[in-house]
Amino acid sequence: MDWEAWMAACEDARAAFARLIGASPDEVAITSSVSHAVSALAVSLPRSRRRRILTTTMDFPCIGHVWLSQPDLDVAYISAENGTIPLAAYENSVDEETLLVSTFHVAYYNGFKQDLRRLAEIAHARGAYLLVDAYQSAGQTPIDVRAMGVDMLVTGAQKYLLGVPGLAFLYVRRELAEQIRPRVTGWFGQADPFAFDGTTIQYAPGARRFDSGTAPMINGFAARAALNVILRVGVERIEAHLQALGAFGLDYARARGLEVRGPQDARQRGSNLAVAVPDAHALEERMREEGFIVSARADVIRIAPHFYNSADDVRDAIDCLVDLLGA
What we know:
Elements: H1 3-21, E1 28-31, H2 34-44, E2 52-56, H3 61-68, E3 74-78, H4 87-93, E4 98-104, H5 116-125, E5 129-133, H6 145-148, E6 152-156, E7 168-172, H7 174-177, H8 217-233, H9 235-255, E8 260-261, E9 273-276, H10 280-289, E10 295-297, E11 300-303, H11 311-326
Parallel strand pairs: 2-3, 2-4, 4-5, 5-6
Antiparallel strand pairs: 1-7, 6-7, 8-9, 9-11, 10-11
Helix pairs in contact: 1-8, 2-3, 9-11
């Protein structure tokens, strides 16, 4: 047992993630998953006459599940239009009853990428907060929560952050965090967890008050190592490489006769390429057998390269998919 080393690994991961998104470490909480983080926010946000949560039909399902579980909140959805959500849809939907706009940065299904700065401006102009799910964007595109005006952000340590499941991060802008009394917390969410006093509660400053029990330490070591790789390579360099791969993949998939879901302009999407297929789960397994790790999402196969991939990798994956569809 080396408690100090365990704690240091998680604190280093917290600091590295804060650096990645332009925040301070005390604005970042360590949680077990995005579902955990958003649930902690859902039960803890101060209630007022504003009871409306605005989300979208393109968000990952757990986001809607969390908000729908709150009986005192009114949940409204913006529907997708041709695989995107126009900014005008937000402008027409956010009103004086809206407490929070809860949406994504890059869509898990088809890679559609949203303009967070404009979303924050729309939400704030009507007195609402902005919560961003960055699960599909953190690590592949630059994020600066202060410059973008993001109030809250959640993401897991896996996907483009190269970590493993079981550890996630919750960013809450410091001034906002200090106004929230968490209803999901734990001994590490206290100002002095080692006081060992269960008769009083004194929340930690900033978003750390959303820390709960002992963090998953092994996951902390993995997150620290992975985040240091991302920071060393540089997200700006990663984004430039992935934009080139994304444009190549989009053009090549269409040239091979495949239907690509979502925006047809590579500048409007992240690196993940969503190809419409019959029986996506069966094709995912068959591609795995051929050496290609892809993801089935409903009726698409999602090809998601990272900085270590090449145009040859993307071409070979598409060729494999075409061959399997023709078999």
